[in-house]
Amino acid sequence: MNVDELTFDEAGLIPAVVQDAVSKEVLTLAYMNKESLQKTIDTKETWFYSRSRQELWHKGETSGNKQQVTDIRYDCDSDALNVLVEPAGPACHKGDYSCFSRSLLSEEKQSADGRRFAIINELEQVIATREAEMPEGAYTTYLFTEGVDKILKKVGEEAGEVIIASKNRDHEELSWETADLLYHLLVLLREQKLPLDDVLRVLEERHRS
Q1: Are the C-beta atoms of residues 87 and 14 closer than 8 Å to each other?
Q2: C-alpha span between 27 and 80 (Å, rounded)
Q3: Per residue, what are the HEC states of the chain?
Q4: pLDDT tens for residues 153-182?
Q5: For the chain, which residues score pLDDT lower than 50?
Q6: CA separation (Å) from 51 to 17, 89, 95, 126?
Q7: How many angstroms from the chain centroid is the CA of residue 118?
Q8: In terms of C-beta density within 10 A (0-12 exposed, 13-18 middle, 19 or more buried), how is residue 121 classed?
Q9: How many Cα atoms are found within 13 Å in the side-chain-facing hemisphere of 98?
């Protein structure tokens, strides 16, 4: 399909849901016209149409918070887009990683399985937020600033601590060290731009084989 085959509204616009390609967090909802969509395709960076200013705008042109496009999907009616990106900074004009940071539903509404693994999803999103916003004084910011060698060193150290705790048959120590290892592995996956979903898919494929 090409741009001309999509369904734009009466104003010549189509909604674009922008999503982090790694964490899968929804970052923002914006609108594109044919010109901004074509620019997005050509440059592999997000371009939108501002309904208030009635002009094209290149995300991150002034702030530096550009979004590298990895895929653009369209829905079954061809009238909405899902733009997968690797963000170089916050998506929200308020400086937040995502424009969608508030919830109308409490955590009690989650299913039992959802609650069990909710912390993994939350931690993955927090790590993505830290990378985008780089708040001063945060340990995750420090890791991203130091780079992959430091992160790999911490993964190795924590793996060693898990081994020691296991040899000691110390459940409390093993819980702590395993938590540290999982955290640093998630940081590493984020640094490598590898979605956790890809790892889970490998596990599922192995389980079924």
Answers
A1: no
A2: 16
A3: CCHHHCCCCCCCCEEEEEEECCCCCEEEEEEECHHHHHHHHHHCECEEEECCCCEEEECCCCCCCCEEEEEEEECCCCCCEEEEEEECCCCCCCCCCCCCCCCCCCHHHCCHHHHHHHHHHHHHHHHHHHHHHCCCCCHHHHHHHHCHHHHHHHHHHHHHHHHHHHHCCCHHHHHHHHHHHHHHHHHHHHHCCCCHHHHHHHHHHHHHC
A4: 999 999 999 999 999 999 999 999 999 999
A5: 112
A6: 16, 23, 21, 31
A7: 16
A8: middle
A9: 20
Q: How is residue 149 written in tokens?
A: 């060698």
β-pair partners for 77: none
Counting every residue written for the chain, the total comes to 209
pLDDT score, position 1:
75
What amino acid occupies position 43?
Answer: T
pLDDT at residue 85 in the model? 96
Q: How far apart are CA 83 and CA 73, in angstroms?
A: 6
Whole-Å CA distances, 62 to 16, 58, 93, 94, 137:
21, 9, 11, 14, 25
And the tokens for 13? 């616009």
Token digits for 135? Answer: 């708040």
Judge contact between 111 and 45, C-beta under 8 A.
no
